[in-house]
Structure formats: structure tokens, C-alpha cells
């Protein structure tokens, strides 16, 4: 996807402070955080949103939640307040599937 912001970050054409990278997933902080800890967990493959998911994405989704759990632990959130959220429809602003890991004090709704 030529002009997709998250594809550009994944291709390293745009800067981001990568907190995790595997063959299939990257994680970087949200540029406009809504909580003390606000990371975006993003599949490397361009998938528009949850409407584009099917059973072939099962392993990818499992990896995403494993990565969310690992990063929650690394950020000392495991026994605190945190959540993993996905926006869709008009609530989704970047049309490349991503999962928000939010922890600590909430500043605003994502
Ligand atoms: P959505 O509303 O699509 O669920 O969330 C998109 C998120 O991406 C927003 O929280 C927004 O702050 C973040 N975002 C948008 N552009 C960039 C960017 O260029 N870099 C980073 N790190 N985050 C971005
Ligand atoms: Zn993309």
C-alpha cells in the first residue's frame, strides 16, 4: 500500500520508535497517546480493518495478543489496568488494522 502511513513505518520510510518487531508484527508508540502507555500493535501485511479478517488470519491474531501480553508485562501492566482495543468503522482513522495497547491512566477515549 503506497500511501498508507503504517505501511511506510513498516517499510522504514517513516520514523517510529519500534518496541518490538517480528516477521509479521511491529509495535510502536502512538504519536498522540491516550494513556500513560499507548502502543500500537500492527501486522506487517496491509489488512484494512477487522472487516477484512478471515480464518486465514488466526495465527496472526494469536501472535498479536501474545505480543500485547508480553508488552503489558514488560511495561509492568500485567497486574494493573490495561486493555487492548480495536477501532472500526468511523472510529478507525488509519485504514491499516492495528491494536491499541493502553495502560496506566487514561487521558481520553481512543
Ligand atoms: P485509530 O483511530 O485508527 O484506531 O487509531 C490510529 C492511531 O494512530 C491514533 O491514535 C493516532 O494518534 C495514531 N497515529 C496516526 N498517525 C501516526 C503516525 O504517523 N505515527 C504514530 N506513531 N502514530 C500515528
Ligand atoms: Zn498499510
Summarize the structure.
By secondary structure, this protein is of the alpha+beta class. Helix content is 21%, strand content 25%. The model has no long low-confidence stretch (mean pLDDT 96).
Helical stretch tally: 2
Based on secondary structure, the structural category is alpha+beta
For this structure, the CATH topology is HIT family, subunit A
Which small-molecule ligands are present, each listed once?
guanosine-5'-monophosphate, zinc ion
Helix content: 10-25%
Low-confidence sequence ranges: none
Q: Give the strand line-up of the largest sheet.
A: 1-2-3-5-4
Query: What value does the average pLDDT take?
Result: 96
What is the tally of beta strands? 5
Rg calc: 13 Å
CATH homologous superfamily name? Answer: HIT-like
What amount of the residues lies in strands? 25-35%
Q: Tell me the series of helices and strands, N- to C-terminal.
A: HEEEHEE
Description:
Helices cover 21% and strands 25% of the residues. It is of the alpha+beta class and 110 residues long. It has a five-stranded antiparallel β-sheet, with helices on one face. Guanosine-5'-monophosphate (5GP) is lined by residues 5, 16, 28-32, 87, 92-94, 110.
